[in-house]
Amino acid sequence: NLDKLLTPTMNLHVGLGYFHQREPSKPHEFDQSRIGLPGTGAVNAYPNANAFPGIGALLTSSGGFSPSIGALGDSTAWEQKPTANLNLSWLKNNHTFKFGGDLTIQGYPTQNRTRANGIFTFNAAESGNPWTNGQTLSLTNPTGFNYASFLLGSPDVVNIAQQTFTRLGGHAFAFFAQDNWKVTRRLTIEYGLRYDFQTYLREQHGRLSSASFSTMNPAINRLGAVAY
Predict the structure, then answer these.
(1) Rounded to an integer, what distance in angstroms lies between the CA atom of residue 92 and that of residue 82?
(2) Mean pLDDT throughout 148-166?
């Protein structure tokens, strides 16, 4: 902050600030070949995504529950917020004028590697009798077992996503002017005007979808769709 007395009746205040914080949510690095899995390709493309894989459906789902192990989340988020404010006070006769404004710029970069380590899902089919291949699995009398397929190192499905680096941002600013007018010793009038403006958060390249209630949805021929 800087305060400067420009004249005996005029004072200028200038303030600048910067707020920064980092929020990592990262698993430990791990070589997937140590557990007999060849890796997912993302490990080579994104070295920092070399983490223990996600392993799901180790047991046959019961009641909607299917236990899993491994790293499912991997991201680092930042908050960057520059701020500025300016105020000018001016005493003139029986008036005290004040003019000013402030600005806040919001930035939320996020580096997301979730699922870049690979999510392996195991199924009973890989450890079942060969004659059941292509047949509808019988939940009451299956011939295989998810955990046995896991021990064989035979995943049924592998999901993988590339890492993303997005940045949400917005800004807000305001201007004001006011006067403290001492009309008499027993009467003071204060009046002023202030304008505030704030944008919605958006991704810097428009890569984040949001609900748009004025966009036509061709699937149902009605307003209301997802827009970028």
Answers:
(1) 34
(2) 85
